[in-house]
What does this fold into?
Amino acid sequence: MPKPKVLKASRQLILWIVANAGGVGKTTLGIHLGYRLAQLGWNTLLLDLDTNGSLARFCGLDYSLDPQQTTAALFERNFSGDYPIHRPIWGNPKGKFEVCLGGDVMLSVALDLPSRTGREIVLKRAFKKYPLPHDLIILDSPASLDVLSYTALAVATHILIPLPMSVKMSGVDFLLQWIRTEAESLDLDPMPQFLGGVPMRVANNADQQAFSSEIKEVLAQQSIPCFPGVRHSVEFENASNRGRAPLYIYRPGHSACQDFEPLVQALQQQLRHLP
Ligand SMILES: Nc1ncnc2c1ncn2[C@@H]1O[C@H](COP(=O)(O)OP(=O)(O)OP(=O)(O)O)[C@@H](O)[C@H]1O
Ligand SMILES: [Mg+2]
It folds into this structure.
């Protein structure tokens, strides 16, 4: 008897990782959270909306792809639900960690989108019309708040904000305000929920520890949780440069792996209590 087609998980968490600065560690965060949650049994897809192609590089899949083999396919006017899903070369825990790759072809998408009606909800429509089976979809977007960011905002159920140690609090305020204002303009129902902020690349010195605490206070004033930071470690860079991004693989047992655990726990809690 033919197997029934896998349908959408009845409950799905769509996490948008967003920052209004480059090189903060968005892709690093997405890969580590996706990998770990897959290890824990959650069916996870990391979807790259960025033009820089770093997800492909981090996954050891750094070759030129046909646009149909990238996230750009989802933005085609005639997209028919054939999701271009890939698996990192370094493995796929429990068969539950998959990726959709971005890259420079996303630039054409960003140039084409503004002239389309319903541009902000192109991704939302694709997910609705052709449901994915994943429990968790993580969206990795470019550092600029452009038209692709609107497509992520429109479909996100949760938002996570990685914060660099060089961040200006006025920049964080701007980002939060932008998210709230645009979510209202898009009339999102329900509104995406802030999972929280997370200080990134925190060095082991008193200044940066103090700055981390300051960030926490500022977010608390806006009722946004702040997770303990992810430390700075050159091993993250070594791992990604070698196309073996998750530290869980490149340096299993490295203490920095633990830095993701509070986020992993928070995500698991949300996944278990999705409406
Ligand atoms: N905690 C960390 N400690 C040291 N290096 C890190 C850390 N996190 C990320 N990096 C390194 O910093 C670089 C940028 O990280 P990443 O690509 O994840 O950032 P990003 O925010 O996705 O950047 P972009 O805006 O270009 O997409 C990478 O080389 C990565 O390996
Ligand atoms: Mg990135």
About this structure: The chain has ten helices and seven strands.
